[in-house]
Structures
1.
Amino acid sequence: MAGDITTIARPYAEAVFARAQEAGQVGAWNDALSTLSSIAGDAQMVEQIGNPNVPREQLCKATLEIASTELSTEAQNLVKLLSANNRLSTLPEIARLFEDLKTQHEGVRQVHVRSAYDLSEVEQRELVAALEKRLGAEVELTAETDPSLIGGVEIRAGDLVIDGSVRGKLRNLATELQS
């Protein structure tokens, strides 16, 4: 399901980012989306957004009232559009994707590495250097330990996934054997 929400949110995030760049308001849009993400991600609001008995207009009005004067007219229009299309639940993902686009535009790629064991500082520096060369951009690395990988690493940089884990290789082998 996470992939589904990303698929739905991506066009909105890309359109908002293009408009923000055009208007020279990337920072303002980033702040607005952060505010809207917090509102739409609140547990009570999530419950209301998911309730088919709550009218969309009421959700839109509530979202705009909570955000109050922090939103530009264009950001308010985004809320209205998302509400009309029953997409308010995508706001946290739109904000995340917008942030990714902003970071990429600034020439920095966010890379998340999961490894079966703790990576030393030296290993992390070597990995960052190799990824910067491959991606052609500055890399901000976050590392996580996941023993279920059995061995190796899994690297995620946006849509790029490099699965060098033993678990991934075993999964690929099982798929090939089933063919």
2.
Amino acid sequence: MKENSLEIKKTGTTTVGIVCKNAVVLAAEKKSTLGYLVASKESEKILPLDDHIAMTIAGVSGDAQALARYLRAEFKLYETMHKRKISVKGAATLLSNILQSSKYFPYFVQLIIGGVDSKGPHIYSLDAVGGIEEEKKFTSTGSGSPIAYGVLEDQYKDNMSVEEAKELAKRAIKAAIERDIGSGGKAIDIAVITKEGIEIFTEKI
């Protein structure tokens, strides 16, 4: 019985992060599941944390949303104390430390932190217990990530423009939606992060 109850709580999603020329592109589909129920077709899986950093979420939405609230508060405190914005690496390290400190009662999440700072564009992937990796080109999370990775590995190229990265992110997400039962919805959210700020678009599919 216990094994079956754990099985039904598995959820799916697909998110993507891409480093391109002077920017980061994040993308996610919008389907949210609760066991065998499609709980929402309009879930928001890209959460802005500051005007230069955003996070994609896969896993338990409540855990991810709580982490986003903590991070926004910590970023404001950092800016107040240091008179400057936190770096993307600093943000990812802070999140890693929060996750590691809670490993005995973990947040059930898989996350991508992406942003642009004085050192350029960066993306980091993090697991539920604080494992952190900087990804120099692209990354993907969620149940549809193996399918998305196939597209990204085949079509990514260095120094892509923002438009090229957006198109690649859409292709990767669409491929996952076609073949991963946990990914879906009727639209894809795409965030473009540059030194000017964050723009989030929703494109129907």
3.
Amino acid sequence: MRTAIRTRLRQMVEADIPQVLDIERESFPSSWPQTAYKRELTNKIARYLVLAEVREDAETLRGAGAPGIWASVRRALGGVEPALTSEYLLGFVGVWLMVNEAHIVTIAVREEQRRTGVGERLLLAAIDLATDMDQEVVTLEVRASNDGAQRMYEKYAFNRMGLRKRYYTDNNEDAVIMTTPDLFTPGYKKLVAELGARHRQRSPDLWS
């Protein structure tokens, strides 16, 4: 059972890139360079979200306890106390908003956080984003060997639409193309609402 944490879901910013690259290296055989993510953050059709754990900053706390330091920091900031928090990224998701289609280009979870609901939380965020942007469906590619991810997508009614042969350049593995039904059909809206409510009940800290 995981210890209660504080999290927030937000847009990725450039300062997140080093942590994003760490997560990507843990998740995939090959990864994008830092410059690619910088370009993506200015890509008009791209949206990147991170799920961040808000933690107390131990270094700041230690510094604040030293004699005279706290008062000096406050004076330097015009009397405003700095926040004693930092953010530790648990995972991220990237979506391209195509014509009537939201394409999940990447979704990754820090290795130590897998099987804790983080991946499903990010998938729900991507579906919500697509709905908010009036996209008709969500689509993605997943490795043919990644049974766990495929089961999660099937839970959200992603259908197998075909294969991209030898899609992954690191080992020439096939990619399974998976796509949701129309996001705005009553049945699908009900499914996502029910699954989202269950996830929120099961992992409330990921919604805080």
4.
Amino acid sequence: MHASSSRSPPTPVLSAGAVVVSRAAAEPRYLLLRAYRNWDFPKGLVEPGEEPLEAAIREVQEETGIDDLELPWGRDFVETAPYGRGKVARYYLALARTERVVLRPNPASGIFEHHEFRWLPGAAARALLVPRVASVLDWAAARVTPAPARP
């Protein structure tokens, strides 16, 4: 007799990041990073014992040098459906007080993960994104307009 094993799908690998928005211009602008041909928001793997929001803030700081994010829209997030090898990306919405970006190498590998950055208004940003990431931008843009109340 042969016992069958029922395998459950693997637990998704969670990465966390932020849709970083600036209000320095007349209309909101979103920070996109390019790795090879792919545009995305800053994000990276959640480390063991790390809260996803902490990971998102850390990844933005490591990848862009932006270290003064505000969360006027709260701790809400959106997640992508699994992609790649079962990865799920969770995005928070954050406001940057500066548009100064410094692309930095990965602290562990010393390799630059991104080749370019752009601050773009919604329509221009959306044109560069694959549908999975464009839906994240749509989620963020619906919250950004109108402007959040200042504390």
